[in-house]
From TrEMBL:
The keyword GTP-binding applies. This is Elongation factor 1 alpha. Residues 86-151 form the Translation elongation factor EFTu-like domain. Keywords: Cytoplasm, Elongation factor, GTP-binding, Nucleotide-binding, Phosphoprotein, Protein biosynthesis. CDD domains: EF1_alpha_II, EF1_alpha_III. It comes from the Eukaryota. GO terms for molecular function: GTP binding; translation elongation factor activity. The gene is EF1a. Belongs to the TRAFAC class translation factor GTPase superfamily. Classic translation factor GTPase family. EF-Tu/EF-1A subfamily. GO terms for cellular component: cytoplasm. Residues 166-242 form the GTP-eEF1A C-terminal domain. It is found in: Cytoplasm.
Length: 242
């Protein structure tokens, strides 16, 4: 309980279920090998739940709300050319809704086109919501124009854009030697994989509180956290963190 509390959860809302995966105890049906276990209970404002097995505890989890009301963002994982259909970008909807007929823009290349159809697991969808891994067919765009790391959005509702530079909080977990201005590591951001230059290390901060500990440090090293201005070597689509 103390650990659950320490990592930010309310122990009363967490099911504690003793199981043996090897023997199948309390997985699907109540075990006869644990007479001391009277069952688990969870209390939360939405609805209380109780049961004995792991599967009941899984069934009692409330599904998260999907960010459908936010602007559409779909980072491309791949782009395929499918005979008889055409160009099919593939990726997971992160926010918003993708529907056939939507006029999408691919950032940062700023290519605009209409979505002809949306499919998931070879079935046509009327709409794709956050969490859906989909392929969608686009008009008049060749496979060569699109690539992994681009982000699709609705051209009419706060479309995504490339960033010339951005400010990031960087935590150095493990690095031999020191990192100073000019260091250019490869950044993996959503599905993009692009080298970004440390243009300016603005300040060192405390990892936990985020408070500034040193302005304009000459370098940072393992264990440090810093606010850094990064400049991507190629256009990169990033969003401000809220």
């Amino acid at each position: 309980s103390s650990y659950i509390k320490k990592i930010g959860y309310n122990p009363a809302a967490v099911a504690f279920v003793p199981i043996s995966g090897w023997h199948g105890d309390n997985m699907l049906e109540p075990s006869t090998n644990m007479p001391w276990f009277k069952g688990w209970k969870i209390e939360r404002k939405e609805a209380n739940a109780e049961g004995k097995t792991l599967i009941e505890a899984l069934d009692a989890i409330l599904p998260p709300s999907r960010p459908t009301e936010k602007p559409l963002r779909l980072p491309l994982q791949d782009v395929y050319k499918i005979g008889g259909i055409g160009t099919v970008p593939v990726g997971r909807v992160e926010t918003g809704i993708l529907k056939p007929g939507t006029v999408v823009v691919f950032a940062p290349a700023n290519i605009t086109t209409e979505v002809k159809s949306v499919e998931m697991h070879h079935e046509a969808l009327a709409e794709a919501v956050p969490g859906d891994n989909v392929g969608f067919n686009v008009k008049n765009v060749s496979v060569k124009e699109l690539r992994r790391g681009y982000v699709a959005g609705d051209s009419k509702a706060s479309p995504p854009k490339g960033a010339a530079d951005f400010t990031a909080q960087v935590i150095v977990l493990n690095h031999p030697g020191q990192i100073s201005n000019g260091y250019t590591p490869v950044l993996d951001c959503h599905t993009a994989h692009i080298a970004c230059k440390f243009a300016e290390i603005k300040e060192k901060v405390d990892r936990r509180s985020g408070k500034t500990t040193e302005e304009n440090p000459k370098f940072i090293k393992s264990g440090d956290a810093a606010i850094v201005n990064l400049v991507p070597s190629k256009p990169l689509c990033v969003e401000s963190f809220q």
